[in-house]
Amino acid sequence: MCIEIDRARRTLEDADCDARQRCAHAIKGAALNCGAISLACKAARLEEVPHDRVRIREMMEELALVDRELRVLEGGVES
């Protein structure tokens, strides 16, 4: 999931709407598989309207939160 998050961050910033939509779809599935429901919801919203800057920002913020939590779990480091 951390690898997917890194890839998504790069894609969301500079991609066209089609690539952004595919990225959001992939993140939605990955997020659901690991229980990151809020991230999955943000990804679903972005998938619907991939050009919306507010949704892109919300997705980026949620990606950062999930990434931080996953890295805590991965390394046993306290947040």
Summed up, what is this model?
This protein is mainly α and 79 residues long. It contains four helices and no strands.
Written description of the protein model:
The mean pLDDT is 91. This protein has 79 residues and is an all-alpha fold. The two termini are 18 Å apart. It contains 4 helices and no strands.
Low-confidence stretches: none
Q: Please identify the structural class as seen in this structure.
A: mainly alpha
Shape: globular
* H/E series: HHHH
Please report which band the strand proportion falls in: under 5%, 5-15%, 15-25%, 25-35%, 35-45% or over 45%.
Answer: under 5%
**What does the largest sheet look like?**
none
Q: Mean pLDDT, rounded to whole units?
A: 91
Let me know the number of strands: 0
Rg from Cα:
12 Å
The amount of helix comes to over 70%
Helix count from the secondary structure assignment: 4
Please report the distance between the alpha carbons of the first and last residues: 18 Å
Task: Using brief descriptors, characterize the structure shown.
79 residues, mainly alpha, globular
List the helices and strands and how they pair.
Elements: H1 2-14, H2 17-34, H3 37-48, H4 53-75
